[in-house]
Design brief:
four-stranded mixed β-sheet, 4 domains, 704 residues, Nucleotidyltransferase, domain 5, Beta Polymerase, domain 2
Length: 704
C-alpha cells in the first residue's frame, strides 16, 4: 500500500522524541532518544526504544536543568553514530510521529552528517501541526495544553521516552478530531500540514527539517519497488521446481504424481544427469490430457504410457520475459501451460494460467478477505485503504472502466456488510440481544447502482419486518444503525452530509412504514417532500434478508411508474441542466476544474433511472438500465448509446483524478483538473458532454 493512503485510525508508526544539549539544531548535540510503537492504530506499550547518547562534549547546565541529563548520566553511553544505527534498524522504514518533529529530524540529520552517515529517510507527521488543524483556537499547542484539551493524563515529561508516550497518546486522541475535519489518511494529514505555511516558515527559519523533504526521499525509495502485475517477469511467478514424468511410466502413475504435488501438469522427459532438460526434448501432460484419454479409452487408458497422452513439442516462454508475453502466447495458442526456459533453451520452470490468475487477482482477493475478516473499525479501515491501489493497478492493465467501478462498488458493499456484522456484535456486547426480527441493510445511490468511485460516502438504510416508529424494534434498529454508521465512518466511508443513513429515522422502518413512505412520495408529488427519494430506487441489500429489499423495491417501482407527476419531479433536474461548456465551446471550470458530477453524471444517471421506473425496468446499474431500455426500443437508441460512452469516459477521468488527489492528500471529489488532460482527451470530453444536450428532450419524449 502507498504509505500516504494509510488510514490514521489503523496507522503503523513510531512516535519519537529526543533530548539535546540545546534548541539550535545547527549546534545542539543528541543526548537521549525515546520512541514507542503504534501498530494498527493502537499503542503498543511494551514495544519501546530508549538510549542515552554521549555527545562527546560537556553538557550545558541550562539544558541539564530541563531534562536532568548531565555528563555523569551519559558516561559510557554509545556515541550518536551507534545510537542512530540502532534507531534506524528499529524504525525499519515506518512512519515517524513527533511533537515539533522537524526539530528531532534536524538533530538526527545533523548527527548523521557529523559521522559521515547518510541521513535517515523518515516520513513524518507533527502533532503540533495536526493539533492546530484540529482546533485552530487553541491558546498554544504544548503537550500540557493538548493533554488538557483531550482529557489525557501524561507523565514523565522532559524525558525522551516519557514525551514520546505523551505524544503517542495525543496523536491517537487527535485521530477522531482530524476525521471530523475530513482528514483520514497520512497524505491528507501531510497536505493539511503543508497548508499551515506560517508554521512551516517558522520551522525553516529555525533550521528545522521539513517533512516535505522526508516524504519526497521516502517516496523515491519506495518508487523502486514495483508491484504491478504487468511489470512482473515470468520468473517472478513460475513454479521453479520441475515436476517431471518418465515417458515410459503409466498414465496412472503420472496422475498420482500430479495429485501428490498439487500441480496440473508434468513435463514428460528423460532427465539428463545434470537435471536440466532441453525444452525441445520434452513433452507435457496435463490433467485435461488425462481426462481426454479416459474419455476415449476408459479405465484402460491409465495403464498406457504417459507418452501416449502427452503433447510435444511444448510451448515455451523465456523466464525473463514480461508476463504480458506469456499471457499473449497462452491466448494465441489456446493453452493453459507454458514451459519457462533459460537462454540455452533449458527448462527452468512451469507457468500455468492458474499462476497468472493468482497474480492478477491476488490484490483483489487480499482486499476482499481483509474486509470479510476484519474484527474492528481500524482493521476495516486498513483493508479498505487498499482499494485505491487495486483501482490503480486495474487502470494500468487497461481493464474496462465498467469492471473497475463494479469492483469498487462491490467492496463498498462488502465494507457495509462487515460493518453491519460488527454492529450486531456491539449490540450483543451491550446486552441488547440479537435483531428482533428479519431485516435488511441496504446501500443506496451509487453503491446500490454499482457505480461507486473512490469519493463515496454513506448512503444506507434499514428495512425490518415489523414494528412501529419508536417502538421496541425501531429503537433496537436505531441503536444498531448508529453503530453501523459510526463503524463505517471510522473505516473510511464518511457520514452522509444529507443524513441518508440508517441511524436517521427517515431511513429506517418496517415494511409497513416503508410502504406508507412510498405511497406518500408518489401521492404528494412536491419537490420538498421527495428529497433524496431518487436514490431509494437504486437500493441493494448487502446484509440480512435480501427478499425484504427485493419486495420493497418492486413496490416502489410499481407505485412510481404510474405517477407521471412523481416521475416529472424526479426528472426535474434535467429541465435546468446544460453541459458545462462556455459560449465558445470551452469547458466551464472553477479553480481550473470541471465538475463532472453535475456536468456529466447527473443527466445520464437521472435519465436512466427515471425511464427505468416509468417502463418497469427493475435494474440498478446505470449501464444495465440503459441496455434494457435499448433492448425495448425505449428512447432514442443513438442518444442512449452515447450516454454509455460518455459515462465510461467521465468515470475513467474522475477515477484517475481521485487517485491523483488521494496520493497528494487532496480531498476527493468529482471535479477533474482540466490542465492535466491531454489535448485529445479534452477534445473528446467537450464533444461527449456537448452531445448530452439531447438527453433532457429524449427523456421527456420517452416519459410522456
Amino acid at each position: 500500500m502507498d504509505p500516504g493512503r494509510m488510514p490514521l485510525v489503523a496507522i503503523d508508526a513510531v512516535v519519537l522524541d529526543t533530548e539535546t544539549t540545546g534548541l539550535d539544531p545547527a549546534r545542539a548535540r543528541l543526548l537521549q532518544i525515546g520512541a514507542v510503537t503504534i501498530a494498527g492504530g493502537q499503542l503498543r506499550a511494551d514495544e519501546t526504544f530508549e538510549t542515552l547518547v554521549d555527545p562527546g562534549e560537556p553538557i550545558p547546565a541550562a539544558s541539564t536543568r530541563v531534562h536532568g541529563i548531565d555528563d555523569r548520566t551519559v558516561a559510557g553511553a554509545p556515541a550518536a553514530a551507534a545510537a542512530l544505527e540502532r534507531l534506524e534498524s528499529w524504525i525499519g522504514g515506518r512512519l515517524v510521529i513527533g511533537h515539533s518533529v522537524g526539530f528531532d529530524l534536524a538533530i538526527l540529520k545533523r548527527e548523521a552528517q557529523r559521522f559521515d552517515r547518510p541521513p535517515p529517510l523518515l516520513r513524518a507527521l507533527d502533532t503540533r501541526l495536526l493539533a492546530r488543524i484540529a482546533n485552530p483556537n487553541l491558546p498554544d499547542v504544548s503537550l500540557e495544553v493538548l493533554a488538557s484539551w483531550l482529557n489525557l493524563e501524561i507523565s514523565g515529561r522532559h524525558t525522551a521516552l516519557g514525551d514520546a508516550r505523551a505524544t503517542a497518546a495525543i496523536f491517537l486522541a487527535l485521530v477522531r478530531k482530524l476525521r471530523e475535519k475530513g482528514i483520514r489518511t497520512v497524505a491528507e494529514s501531510e497536505a493539511a500540514s503543508r497548508r499551515l505555511t506560517d508554521a512551516m516558515e517558522a520551522q525553516h527559519a529555525a533550521g528545522w527539517a521539513t517533512m516535505e523533504g522526508a516524504v519526497a526521499d521516502a517516496e523515491r525509495t519506495l518508487a523502486r519497488i514495483d508491484s504491478y502485475p504487468y511489470r512482473h517477469r515470468v520468473s517472478d511467478v513460475m513454479a521453479a521446481t520441475l515436476r517431471t514424468a518418465d515417458p515410459a511410466e503409466s498414465l496412472e502413475a503420472a496422475l498420482r504424481r500430479m495429485v501428490d504435488a498439487r500441480v496440473s501438469s508434468l513435463f514428460v522427459v528423460d532427465m539428463p544427469p545434470d537435471g536440466q532438460p532441453a525444452a525441445a526434448d520434452a513433452g507435457i501432460v496435463t490433467e485435461r490430457d488425462v481426462m481426454r484419454a479416459l474419455a476415449r479409452a476408459g479405465a484402460a487408458a491409465l495403464a498406457a504410457p504417459v507418452s501416449s497422452a502427452m503433447s510435444k513439442p511444448i510451448a515455451t516462454v523465456p523466464a525473463d520475459a514480461f508476463l504480458y508475453r506469456a499471457m499473449g502466447r497462452m491466448t494465441r495458442l489456446g493453452i493453459r501451460h507454458l514451459g519457462a526456459v533459460d537462454e540455452a533453451g533449458r527448462l527452468v520452470g512451469a507457468l500455468s494460467a492458474r499462476d497468472l490468475l493468482r497474480l492478477r487477482s491476488g490484490m483483489a482477493t487480499a482486499l476482499g478477505d481483509a474486509i470479510d475478516v476484519a474484527e474492528s473499525a481500524p482493521a476495516l479501515a486498513l483493508a479498505f485503504a487498499k482499494l485505491p491501489a487495486l483501482a490503480d493497478s486495474l487502470i494500468a492493465e487497461a481493464v474496462p472502466i465498467a469492471d473497475i467501478v463494479a469492483v469498487i462498488s462491490r467492496e463498498v458493499g462488502a465494507l457495509t456488510r462487515r460493518a453491519a456484522l460488527l454492529a450486531e456484535a456491539r449490540m450483543m456486547d451491550e446486552g441488547r440481544g440479537p435483531p428482533p426480527c428479519r431485516h435488511a441493510v441496504v446501500v443506496l445511490g451509487s453503491s446500490g447502482r454499482g457505480d461507486s468511485l473512490l469519493a463515496a460516502d454513506q448512503d444506507n438504510a434499514i428495512l425490518f419486518e415489523r414494528g412501529e416508529p419508536d417502538g421496541p424494534e425501531d429503537r433496537w434498529f436505531a441503536a444498531y444503525g448508529a453503530h453501523l454508521n459510526d463503524i463505517l465512518d471510522a473505516a473510511g466511508l464518511p457520514y452522509c452530509k444529507g443524513g441518508v443513513m440508517a441511524r436517521t429515522p427517515a431511513w429506517r422502518g418496517s415494511l409497513e412504514t416503508w410502504s406508507g413512505r412510498i405511497d406518500t412520495w408518489v401521492r404528494r408529488s412536491r419537490a420538498e417532500d421527495i428529497l433524496a427519494v431518487d436514490i431509494f430506487y437504486d437500493l441493494r441489500a448487502v446484509h440480512g434478508d435480501g427478499a425484504l429489499a427485493r419486495d420493497v423495491l418492486a413496490k416502489a417501482y410499481e407505485a412510481g411508474r404510474t405517477s407521471l407527476p412523481f416521475l416529472k419531479l424526479l426528472a426535474a433536474e434535467l429541465e435546468s441542466w446544460s453541459p458545462p461548456l462556455t459560449l465558445f465551446g470551452s469547458l466551464r471550470t472553477a479553480d481550473g476544474r470541471v465538475d463532472l458530477k453535475l456536468g456529466g453524471f447527473l443527466p445520464v444517471v437521472t435519465a436512466a433511472r427515471v425511464l427505468s421506473i416509468r417502463h418497469g425496468v427493475v435494474r440498478r446499474a446505470t449501464r444495465d438500465r440503459i441496455a434494457e431500455l435499448r433492448a425495448r426500443a425505449i428512447g432514442h437508441d443513438a442518444d442512449l448509446a452515447h450516454m454509455v460512452e460518455t459515462y465510461d469516459l467521465i468515470q475513467r477521468l474522475v477515477l484517475e483524478q481521485q487517485l491523483a488527489d488521494g496520493k497528494a492528500g487532496r480531498p476527493l471529489g468529482n471535479a477533474v483538473e482540466v490542465g492535466r488532460l491531454g489535448r485529445d482527451t479534452r477534445a473528446a470530453l467537450k464533444a461527449a458532454l456537448g452531445r448530452l444536450d439531447t438527453v433532457p428532450q429524449m427523456t421527456r419524449d420517452a416519459l410522456f
